[in-house]
Design brief:
Length: 118
């Protein structure tokens, strides 16, 4: 832990040039472990979008039946494909988190706290 008090004449002046209160700056260094994290929502939304797009393409490739309209079929298939894509995106995120998340590095974090000296 390092504590310092500014001693220069210009350091004790505020923005208007008036004398400011003395300030104490405290710096603490500690070792921390940094780990990369997978962003689950991004991969899940990406999976859902890909599922909806593929569901729409698959729907448009097949002929329309007599019982349902194209819009109904497109809605049902895109909904189901979106849910499947969402689940697959979440599964991919879990797998990536298990493989990439194992890499950890240790670094030094520096916390600086400023107090008015009373």
């Amino acid at each position: 832990m390092t504590t310092s008090t500014p001693s220069g004449a210009d350091d004790n002046l505020d923005a208007e040039g008036a004398a400011a209160e003395p300030v104490t700056v405290e710096t603490v260094e500690e070792r921390v472990v940094v780990r990369r994290a997978v962003r689950y929502p991004r991969l899940m939304v990406l999976g859902a979008i890909i599922g909806v797009v593929l569901g729409g393409i698959v729907t448009l490739l097949f002929p329309v039946g007599k019982d349902y309209t194209l819009g109904q079929i497109l809605g049902f298939v895109c909904l189901a494909a979106g849910v499947i894509g969402l689940a697959l995106g979440g599964l991919l995120a879990l797998i990536l988190d298990r493989t990439v998340g194992r890499r950890q590095t240790e670094t030094v974090a520096r916390r600086v706290t400023t107090h008015n000296a009373d």
